[in-house]
Design a protein that fits this description.
Elements: H1 2-9, H2 11-38, H3 44-60, H4 62-70, H5 75-96, H6 103-134, H7 140-168
Helix pairs in contact: 2-3, 2-6, 2-7, 3-6, 4-6, 5-6
Length: about 170
Amino acid sequence: MLIFKFLSTNNDFTKIASINLFSRLGDRLFYISMLNCAALVSQSTLAITLVSFSETIPLLLSFLLGSVSDRQKNKSSILIKNSIIRCLIYVTIGLIFYHPTNFLIILLVSILNLISGILGNYSSALITPFTKILVNNNDMEKAQGIIAMTSELINAFSTLMGSILIIFS
């Protein structure tokens, strides 16, 4: 129960890490939904490829985004702006899906998802320095371990949920 003790004694870290993890969970569930929609259009193979690229390219850019984020001065302001932009992107995606799903819709949503993914990974890189501020040096290994463990659990949970949803669709 050392994890729970650590989390209860590091409230600010717990809040920031939780927000970031819930965002990742939302991203993974959105990806699963997008794959499901892409599988339903007439050019499904190309549509699934576009959706996969819109999720993969931001991950590949993460190392560049990390070095860019390290040079930023007002990280909290950038985090807020990124969150607002991502919110507007997902509202736009919701409005787009009000129309019947076709290849053009998948293409447009994939482009928006690519932009949101890049902003999301950039935001994650911006959060990392806050961990150093919020957690004692002696507890950094625990903090990074908790973030890594919960990220992997979210990925595993999302993959399982995606498989179950695809089976029933």
